[in-house]
């Protein structure tokens, strides 16, 4: 597992340049208005969304579940604790197909727990009119 930090940025090119230099790594995936970094040290999935009118810089926080066998125990644990606000199965979002759980903390911050099942889905079906990870 690794922590995911999803940020709203006003200029994707400027942000990609900054974070590439900050973490000494190029984006894992780049699309118009979107960048995704898979940073080894520190272990971090950094996701940038170009959102000119965002009122908050933080989009959401997540946990990427890299081992597919960990998704079911995570779902059970969060379900028993009454912390799941919604689930999505085989959803294409953020330029990848994923299974995910969402939990909203008391002050409204969304936590996403997800496992990527296809990191390069068919571009024709990817993001067809959807808002990404909101």
In spatial order, strands of the major sheet run 2-3-4-1-5-8-7-6
Q: How many runs of DSSP E, i.e. beta strands?
A: 8
Radius of gyration: 15 Å
Order of helices and strands: EHEEEEHEEE
Q: Percent of residues in helical segments?
A: 10-25%
* Low-pLDDT ranges: 124-131
- Terminal Cα span: 21 Å
Most strands sheet: 8 strands, mixed
- Class derived from helix and strand content: alpha+beta
Overall shape: it is: globular
Strand content: 35-45%
Average pLDDT confidence is: 87
Q: How many H/I helical runs?
A: 2
What topology does this entry show?
Elements: E1 2-9, H1 12-23, E2 29-31, E3 34-39, E4 44-50, E5 58-64, H2 71-80, E6 86-93, E7 96-104, E8 110-118
Parallel strand pairs: 1-4, 5-8
Antiparallel strand pairs: 1-5, 2-3, 3-4, 6-7, 7-8
Q: Describe it for me?
A:
The chain is an alpha+beta fold. It is 16% helix and 43% strand. It contains 2 helices and 8 strands, in the order βαββββαβββ. It has helices at residues 12-23, 71-80; strands at residues 2-9, 29-31, 34-39, 44-50, 58-64, 86-93, 96-104, 110-118. Strands 2-3-4-1-5-8-7-6 form an 8-stranded mixed sheet, with helices on one face. The longest helix is centred in the N-terminal third of the chain and has 12 residues, at 12-23. The radius of gyration is 15 Å and the shape is globular.
What attributes does this structure have?
globular, alpha+beta, 134 residues, 43% strand, single chain
Task: Write a brief structural summary.
With 134 residues, the protein is α+β, with helices and mostly antiparallel strands.
């Amino acid at each position: 597992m690794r922590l995911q930090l999803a940020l709203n940025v006003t200029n994707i090119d400027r942000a990609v340049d900054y974070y590439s230099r900050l973490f000494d790594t190029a984006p894992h995936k780049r699309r118009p208005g979107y960048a995704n970094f898979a940073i080894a040290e520190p272990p971090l999935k950094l996701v940038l969304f170009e959102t000119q009118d965002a009122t908050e810089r933080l989009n959401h926080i997540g946990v990427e579940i890299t081992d597919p066998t960990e998704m079911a125990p995570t779902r059970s644990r969060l379900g028993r604790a009454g912390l799941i606000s919604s689930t999505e199965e085989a959803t294409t979002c953020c330029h990848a197909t994923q299974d995910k759980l969402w939990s909203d903390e008391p002050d409204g911050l969304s936590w996403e727990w997800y496992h990527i099942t296809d990191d390069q889905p068919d571009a024709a079906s990817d993001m067809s009119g959807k808002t990404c990870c909101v």
